[in-house]
Prior knowledge:
Blueprint: E1 2-8, E2 11-14, E3 27-29, H1 32-35, H2 44-71
Antiparallel strand pairs: 1-2, 1-3
Amino acid sequence: MLCLSQIDGNTFQVASPQPTEYTSCTYVLAQPSDLGINAWALTPDEGYQIATAIAICWAAGYASRVVGQFLKPNQSLEGE
Length: 80
């Protein structure tokens, strides 16, 4: 983690040396690894839930397209 100190309105400087307590920092830049967070670490159950939600969205889109084609009048037969 990096402690940033504000110099003026929009200018920040990395504090040197880095403090041991980050409560005195204006902003703290942290990597996900510093916080112990991995956004891509899913359990199999969470992956299954996401895949199911995507499949339901695709199925709903396909079903609405098919229903729309049935409700749309066939214009090719009107000219005959």
